[in-house]
Amino acid sequence: MSKKYDTPLLDELEKGPWPSFVTEMKKAAARSEMANDELGQLEKSYRTKRGYWKHGGIVGVLGYGGGVIGRYSSLPDEFPGVAHFHTVRINQPSGWFYTTKALREICDIWDKYGSGLTNLHGSTGDLVLLGTTTENLEPLFAEYSSRGWDLGGSGSAMRTPSCCIGPARCEWANIDTLEICYQMTQKFQDELHRPAFPYKFKIKVAGCAVDCVASIARADCSIIGTWKGKIEIDQDAVQWYAKNGMDIKAEIVDMCPTACISYDGTNLSIDDDNCSRCMHCISKMTKALKPTGEKGATILIGSKAPIVVGSLMSWVIVPFMKLEPPYDELEELIRKMIEWWDDNAKPRERIGELIEARGMREFLEAIGVPPQPQQVFEPRKDPFFFWKDEDLTKE
Amino acid sequence: MSKKYDTPLLDELEKGPWPSFVTEMKKAAARSEMANDELGQLEKSYRTKRGYWKHGGIVGVLGYGGGVIGRYSSLPDEFPGVAHFHTVRINQPSGWFYTTKALREICDIWDKYGSGLTNLHGSTGDLVLLGTTTENLEPLFAEYSSRGWDLGGSGSAMRTPSCCIGPARCEWANIDTLEICYQMTQKFQDELHRPAFPYKFKIKVAGCAVDCVASIARADCSIIGTWKGKIEIDQDAVQWYAKNGMDIKAEIVDMCPTACISYDGTNLSIDDDNCSRCMHCISKMTKALKPTGEKGATILIGSKAPIVVGSLMSWVIVPFMKLEPPYDELEELIRKMIEWWDDNAKPRERIGELIEARGMREFLEAIGVPPQPQQVFEPRKDPFFFWKDEDLTKE
Amino acid sequence: MALPQRQTDIGPPHYKQFLPPVIEKNYGQWKYHERIDAGTMVHVAESGDKVYTVRVASPRLLSTDTIRDMLDVADKYCDGYIRFTSRNNVEFMTADESKVEPLKKELKDRGYTIGGIGPRITNVVHTQGWVHCHSACTDASGLVKAMMDELYEYFTEKELPAKVRLALACCVNMCGAVHCSDIAVVAVHRKVPVIDHDKIKDMCEIPTTVAACPTRAISPDPAKKSIKIKDEKCMYCGNCFTVCPPIEIHNPEHDGVAIVVGGKIGSLRTGPKFSKLAIPFFYNEPPRWPKVVAAIKNILEVYAKNARKHERLGEWVERIGWERFFKLTGIEFTYQHIDDFTFMRDTLRTSAAFKW
Amino acid sequence: MALPQRQTDIGPPHYKQFLPPVIEKNYGQWKYHERIDAGTMVHVAESGDKVYTVRVASPRLLSTDTIRDMLDVADKYCDGYIRFTSRNNVEFMTADESKVEPLKKELKDRGYTIGGIGPRITNVVHTQGWVHCHSACTDASGLVKAMMDELYEYFTEKELPAKVRLALACCVNMCGAVHCSDIAVVAVHRKVPVIDHDKIKDMCEIPTTVAACPTRAISPDPAKKSIKIKDEKCMYCGNCFTVCPPIEIHNPEHDGVAIVVGGKIGSLRTGPKFSKLAIPFFYNEPPRWPKVVAAIKNILEVYAKNARKHERLGEWVERIGWERFFKLTGIEFTYQHIDDFTFMRDTLRTSAAFKW
Ligand code: SRM
Ligand code: SRM
Ligand code: SRM
Ligand code: SRM
Ligand code: SF4
Ligand code: SF4
Ligand code: SF4
Ligand code: SF4
Ligand code: SF4
Ligand code: SF4
Ligand code: SF4
Ligand code: SF4
Fold it and tell me: Is D234 exposed, middle or buried (0-12, 13-18, 19+ CB in 10 A)?
C-alpha cells in the first residue's frame, strides 16, 4: 500500500525515544488498506480532537455471543477501509508465554484477514487483533480455532481470566497461577462465549500479595496466593544484604506494617503471629526470607472501574482456601457466587455492586461462607444492624 | 415524705463503691412526692424492663419556645407524682464554674418548684432540673431569671453552647473558650429561645486539639483553638522528664504522627513545618513544650449522633481564624452558615447532613470560604466532578 | 407571695463572677500542670501562683441535698467556689497547698470518691434512661452504676495505658458520646415496630413518617390511612417512633444493649475515631447487667495488658488489627459486625494483608 | 481455498507447550532473583539453574511486522520462546548467561528499548483512545508516547524511590488501571450531554436510560418521547451515552484529561490504594499534550526528591499529608478536589491536626 494520507500531527509522535505506535501503524499501513485508513482517520481525530467511531454493533462468529467488538467508522465514505474495523479477542495462554512458531502463525493469519495491527495485549489480557470486517470473522475464526486458539470474552459474560507469571518464574508464588487460570478458563467456556450474565465477570489470579496482575483492582473475583506458617530466615543471606548496602532497620524493620520484625545487627527475627503477610520484607530480601507452611489463596470479590458509583477494590471473602487440582472447590465457589448474582442483579450491575446493594450477609449466606474478622478492616460504626428471627431464637 | 415504695431492685444499686443515683433519688424522695413516685415508677421499669414515659408534649414559659422538655408518665394513676415530670434546662455559666452561693440559690428554688433532682450537667452542658409540673414553670422561671439565670436550648433551635475550661486553668488554651462561649450564647439568645431552625444547632468551644469538650463529635459547629508558629522547647525541662522516667524515644519521638521530632539523648528538636499540631508531645511534656506565634481557631462543622444515616464528626471548614473580642467575624460566619442551612434544609435535617446532600462546594460558596487542602484528608477518588460555567470560562 | 420580675434573653451569668480569685488573676497565664495522684493535680501559673484541683466522682443525677453537702465542703476549703467538668465530675480547687490534704480527708469522710485524673477511667458520659426519657430502651444511671462499681479502682487508683472514656446512651439517638468513646454501651432494638393504626390517623403526618425512615422501609397504606413497614428493610432505628409515637418500637423482650469500642475525640497522635461494634447484643438484665459489665471489664483488661503507654484503646486495636482484637478478647464475630450501611465500602477489607 | 475445520469452546492452548525448558524444569522451584540492571534480571532455581530475563518496552499497539522482528530475536537467543508481561512489555529469556549480552546488543541494534525492571517506571497500562473506541475523549497511545518520551530515562536507567505505575484511560469507563495507579491520566467530559430527541425514539429504551444515571439527573420527557437532563445534577459520566448513543457526551471543545495520583495495588506495607485527584483538568493538546506531560513529570520529580526508599508515591503523600503534597507540587486545590460523591464522608477532614 502506498502512503495515502499526510499525517503531520501523528508524525510528531514518531519522534522521541519511546517506541512509536505511529510507526507501527505506518508499517501496517504499508500493507493494509484498513491500517492506511485507520491512520488517516486518527490524524483527523488529532486535528479535531474527537474520535470518529460509532457505538459498536453486535457482530461475531456463529455459536458465540462474544469475543468480537464490533466497530464502525462514523466517516465510512471518507475512510472506507475502516467502515468496519472490528477487534477480535484471542484468549491468551496463561502467563502470556508463546513460542515464536505459534505467534508467527497468529501474525500470518491476521495479516490475511485483518489490518495487521494488534494489541499485545488488551487490558483484560487477551491477545487483541485490531481491525477486521464482518465477513472476515468466520474464516478467521476457522483458521485460529483449528490451530488451537479460541476467542476471549466480551459483553455480559465470563471474561478471559488472566494471571501473573507465578511459579513459572517467581519464587513467591504460593499457588499455581497459570494452571488455575487455565482450568478456570476451561471450566467456564460456555459462560465465556455465550453472554448470559447480568454484566461482565472477571477473574484474575496472582501468586502472592504483590499482585502483579492487579487482581485486587480489576477483577470481580481476585485470587491471591498466601500461606499459613512461618517466614524462614536465612541469617547469612540477611548479612549478605547488610553488606551489600541495605539499611535493614530503615528499609525492613521500620517499614514492616505490623512492626513484627526485629534486628539486632546480626540476626533478624520475625514475630510470625503478628505478620500480615504483606510481602514487603520478602520482596526486599528475597534471598533471606521464605514463607513456609500451608499454601493457598485468599479469595476476594468485587473490584471494578468507577462507572457508575465509584471504583471498587475487591473484598476479602474467603481468607484462606487450599487450591489444588482439579480446583473443584474453587469452581464450585465461583459458581455459587455467579448464581446468586445472576438471580438477583439488574442488567449492568456488577457482583460488587450487588453485594453493596444487598449487604454482605446475604451474599455470604448464599455462598455458605461464615462471617470472619478478616473480611473487614474494622467492624461497623453505627448502631443500625439487622437481626433475623433465627438470630433471636438462637441465643 | 415517707417511703412510699419497696424498691428491692433499685436497692441493689445502693451497694458498691461508686456514688449511687438511687441514694440521690431516695434523698429527694424523702422530701418530694414527685421524687417518690419517680422512684416507684423506676422500680417498675426495672421489673418490666421498659420505660413508662409518653412522648414529650410542648410545654414552656411565656415567650420562649424551648428550654423545657415536657414529660408525662404513661401511668399517671399509678404514679401521680410524675404525671407531669418536665425537665428544665438552665443555661450553665461558661466552664461550669459556680459560687456556692449561686448554686445554693439554684437548689433552693428547685426544691420549691421541682422534685429536688438534677443533672449536673446534661450532655449538652445545661444545668438540668429534673421533674416539675406545667403550672410551676412560670414561677420557677420568674425566680431564676430575676436572679440572672436563663433557660438553655431545646428543640429546633440554637442549643446551649459549651466550652472546655480553657484559659481558666489550662496552659494549652489558644483561645478564650469561656468568653467565646459566653459571647456566642449572648449573640444567639433569640435563636436559642425561639426555635425557628430546621433542627438543633450546637456550638462547642475547645481551647486546643485535645478537645476536652468533645466538640468535634458533638457540635454542629466545633471551634478548636490552635496556633501558627513554633513549639518552643525548654531543654532543661526535657531532661527533667527524661530523669523522671520518661522514655522520650518511645513515648514522644515514636508517637509523633508526623515523625517530626528528633531526640539525641540530650536535645529534643521539632521540625515545626511538618508538625500537625496534634498536641501529643505537648500534652505529655507540658513543662518542656509551648506553642508560640499566632493564636486562633479551626472552625469545623457538622458533627452529630447517628440518627439517621450514621454519626458524623465535624469537618474542617476554616483552617485558621483569629478569634478576638467582640468575635464579630465568628458570629458573622455562623450566621451565614445558619442562613444557608435554614434556606435549604428539610425539617430535622442537621447542617452536616445538608452539606452531605448538597456537596461542600455549595456550602463553601454560600459562606464565602475558598477550597483548601486542609478541608480534606485526601482528594476525591472518582473521576466524577462538577463544573460550573464560570469555571469553564475562567481558564 | 409575689414572684419577682421575670427577665428574658439574658443568657447565663457571666462566668467571671464565678471564677476563684487565683484563676481570675492567672487567667490565660498558666505555665504547666502536674498530676499529684489519681484525683489531685496542680496547675502552676507564669506568676508562680498555683491552683490545686481535687476531682470527685458524681452520679450526675444529684439531689439538692448532695449538692448542698458539696457546697459546704467548697465553702470550707475553696473560698466558696466549685466547678463541674465536661464529664460531670466535681472539682474542688484551692490556691493554698496546706488545704489540699484536709480537703481530701473531709471529702473522703463525707463519702465522696476522689479520682478520675490522668490515664484512668473518669466519669461515664450518659443519658436519661428509664429515669426520664420516653425513648429509652435500657436504663442509663443503673447500668453506669453497675459498671463503675466494677471498674472503681480504675477511677481511684490503677493506671491504664491511656485515658479510657466510657459512655452510655439509652437509645440510638445517642445523647451521650457513645459514637466516639473508648468503650461505650448503646441500647438497641431488634424488632420491627408495631403500628397502632387507629392512633396514627390522629397523631401523625403520613409523609413525614414515610420520610423519616432512612432505609425506605415505610410506605403509605392508603386503605388503612396509615403506613406499612417492609420488615426486611427495617433496622430498628426508631426514627419513625420519634416522629410518630403510635409506631411502637419498644419491645422489652427483645430490646437490649450493644457494646462499641475504639472511639476517641482528641486529635492527639491519630485523630478522632468513631467507635466500632464489638458486641452486638446483650439482654437487659437489671438491676446490674452482669454480662455487660463483665464484657466491658474483659475488653478493658485485655487492652490494659496489651497496649503501649499513651496508646488509646482504638489506637491499640488499629495497631494490632481488628482480627486480633476479636481473638484476644474472645469475642465472636457475627454478621452484625459487617457494615451494610453508610461506611460499608470503607470497612470491607480490600487488602490481601491481614492476620490469621 | 477451503477453510480448516473450526472448533469451539476449546479455550486457549495449554501454557505448558509455551514454557521455555528451563522454566518447565524449574516450575515452582525458584529460589530467588537478582536485578542485574534496569532491564535485566536473573532468577535462580533450587536446582541451581538460572534464567535471565531481558525486558523490552512495547507500544502495545504492534504491527505484525514488529512482532515478527521480535520473534526473530527470540529464535536467535531464546530457543524460540517469548513472553509478554502484565503491563505489555516483552520479555526475552535465556538460561545461558553467555547469550545475555549479545541478546541485549542485538535488541538495542534493532532499536528496542531495554528497561522497566526494578524501582522505575515501566510500561503504561492504557486503552484504545481515538484509535478504536467510540467512547474515547482523548487519545491513549499518543498521550502515552508523549509521556514516555519525556520520562524515558526512568524506564531505561534512573532509579526512583520505588516502582511508579503509570496508567491512562481514555474515558471514565477506565479500561486501564487508572483507579489504583501511582500517577494516571483519565479523560473526562465537562459538559452535560446533548440529546438528539429524534433518534432516541428508535434507538433507546427510556427506562434503561433513566436508570443508567447515577445521580438521577435523567427523567423521562413523555411529550417528546424522549428524556431530559437536569443540568446541575449531571457530572458527565457518560453512562447515559453508553446505553443510549443519541445522548452525545462528546464535546471536543470542553473535553480533556485529569491527573490522579497515589494509587497502588500490592498489599506491601500499606495495602492497595485508590488514586486521588491531583489536577482536575487539562485541555486536549494533541499531538503531544505538553502541559499534561509537564505536570506528570513535576509530580514524579517532587516525589523522587522527597520520598524515602521503597516508599510508593501514595505512601509518601500519606506520610506527609495531602496538604503538603499540594504545597510541594505547587498544584492548585479546587472545588473539584473535594469529594461530593461516594466517599465524601471519609475524605472530609475530621481532625484538628493538619499542616499549614
Ligand atoms: C480493549 C480494552 C481496552 C484496551 O485497550 O485494552 C477495553 C475496551 C473497551 N471496554 Fe473495557 N476494555 C478492556 C478492559 C477493561 C478493564 C481492565 C481489565 O479488564 O482488567 C476494565 C476495568 C475493570 C472492570 O472490569 O471494571 C474495563 C472497564 C470497562 C467498562 C466499565 C465497566 C464497569 O462496570 O465499570 C466499560 C463500560 C461498559 O461495560 O459498558 C468498558 C467498555 C469497553 C468497550 C467495550 C466500550 C463500550 O463502551 O462498549 C471498549 C471497546 C473498545 C474498542 O472499541 O476496542 N470497559 N475494561 C480492554 C479489553 C481487552 C482484552 O480483552 O484484553
Ligand atoms: C438531656 C439530654 C441527655 C442527658 O441525659 O444529658 C438529652 C435528652 C434528650 N435528647 Fe438528646 N439529650 C442531650 C444531649 C444530646 C447530645 C449530646 C450533646 O449535645 O453534646 C446528642 C448528640 C449530639 C447531637 O446533637 O447529635 C443528642 C442527640 C439527640 C438526638 C439525635 C439528633 C440527631 O440529629 O442525630 C435526639 C433525637 C431528636 O432530636 O429527635 C435527641 C432527643 C432527645 C430527647 C429530647 C428525646 C426526644 O426524642 O425527644 C431527650 C429528652 C430526654 C428527657 O426526657 O429528659 N437527642 N442529645 C441531653 C441534653 C441536656 C442538656 O441540655 O445539657
Ligand atoms: C476538666 C476537663 C475539661 C473541662 O472543661 O471540664 C479536662 C481537663 C484536662 N484535660 Fe482533658 N479534660 C476534660 C475532658 C476531656 C475530654 C472530653 C471527654 O472525655 O468527653 C477529652 C477527649 C477524650 C477523647 O479523646 O476521647 C479529653 C482528653 C484529654 C487528653 C487526651 C488523651 C489522649 O491521649 O488521647 C489530655 C492529655 C493527656 O491526658 O495527656 C487531656 C488533658 C487535660 C488536662 C491535663 C489539661 C490541662 O492542662 O489542664 C486537664 C486535666 C487532666 C486530667 O483530667 O487528667 N485531656 N479531656 C475535662 C474533665 C472531664 C472529667 O471529668 O474527666
Ligand atoms: C513480569 C510481571 C508479572 C507478569 O506476570 O507479567 C512482574 C514480575 C515481577 N514483579 Fe511485579 N510484575 C509485574 C507486574 C506488577 C504489578 C501489576 C501492575 O503494575 O499492573 C504490580 C502491582 C503494582 C502496584 O502495587 O501498584 C507489581 C508489583 C511488584 C512489587 C511491589 C512494589 C511495591 O513495593 O509496592 C514487587 C516487589 C518489589 O519491587 O520489590 C514486584 C516484584 C516482581 C518480581 C521481582 C517478582 C519475582 O520474584 O519474579 C518480578 C520481576 C521484577 C520487576 O519487574 O521489577 N512486583 N508488579 C509484571 C511486569 C509488568 C511490567 O512489564 O513491568
Ligand atoms: S504476584 Fe507474587 S507470585 Fe505473582 S509474579 Fe508477582 S510476586 Fe510473583
Ligand atoms: S511480610 Fe510484611 S508484615 Fe510480615 S514480617 Fe514482612 S514486612 Fe512485616
Ligand atoms: S481542650 Fe485543650 S485548652 Fe481546653 S481544657 Fe482541654 S487541653 Fe485545655
Ligand atoms: S504536636 Fe503532634 S505532630 Fe506536632 S511535634 Fe508534637 S507530636 Fe508531633
Ligand atoms: S439516648 Fe435516647 S433514650 Fe437516652 S436520653 Fe437520649 S433520646 Fe432519650
Ligand atoms: S425503625 Fe427505623 S428503619 Fe425501621 S421502619 Fe422505623 S424508621 Fe424505618
Ligand atoms: S477507557 Fe473508555 S474510551 Fe478508552 S477503551 Fe475503555 S471504554 Fe473505550
Ligand atoms: S452523563 Fe452521567 S450524570 Fe450526566 S446525565 Fe448522563 S448518566 Fe447522568
Answer: buried
Grid cell for residue A232: 524462614
The secondary structure of residue C333, as a DSSP letter, is: P
CA atoms within 13 A on the CB side of D307: 26
Mean pLDDT per 10-residue interval, chain D, length 356 residues? 91 98 98 98 98 98 98 98 98 98 98 98 98 97 98 98 98 93 98 95 93 95 94 95 95 97 98 98 98 98 98 98 98 97 93 98
Distance B240 CA to ligand 3 centre (A): 23
- Give dist(CA C183, CA D343) in Å, integer: 27
- Examine the fold and report which residue of B271, B291, B311 is the final residue of a domain before the chain moves on: B291
Q: Is A276 helix (H, G, I), strand (E, B) or coil?
A: coil
Residue at B2 is within a domain? no
ipTM: 0.97
For D25, the 3-state DSSP assignment is helix
Residue B249 lies in a domain: yes
pTM score, two decimals? 0.97
CATH code of the domain containing A71:
3.30.70.2500
Question: Which residue positions in chain C have pLDDT lower than 70?
Answer: 1
Same structural domain, A133 and A171: no
Same domain, A42 and A115: yes
C-alpha D174 – ligand 10 centre gap (Å): 38
DSSP conformation class of D5: P
Question: CB distance B104–C71 less than 8 Å?
Answer: yes
Same domain, A183 and A244: no
Q: Is the pLDDT of residue A2 over 70?
A: yes
Look up residue D228 and give its amino acid: K
Distance from CA of A278 to the nearest CA of C (A): 5
- Contact at CB, C348 and A377, closer than 8 angstroms: yes
Residues B111, B129: Cα–Cα separation, whole Å: 10
Q: Which residues of C325-342 are buried (b: 16+ CB within 10 A; e: fewer)?
A: bbbbbebebbbbbbbbbb
Q: Running DSSP on this structure, what letter comes out for residue D332?
A: P
Model pLDDT, residue A394: 66
Grid coordinates belonging to D352:
484538628
Q: Which of A275, A291, A307 finishes a domain?
A: A291
Q: Is C163 in the pocket of ligand 3 (CB under 6 A)?
A: yes
pLDDT tens-place string over residues D264-314: 999 999 999 999 999 999 999 999 999 999 999 999 999 999 999 999 999
What pLDDT does residue D1 have?
62
Q: Is A374 helix (H, G, I), strand (E, B) or coil?
A: helix
Segment A43-66 mean pLDDT: 95
For the record, the C-alpha cell of B226 comes out as: 490552635
- Bridging pattern class, strands A203-206 and A162-163: parallel
**Looking at beta carbons, which residues of chain D come within 8 Å of C350?**
271-272
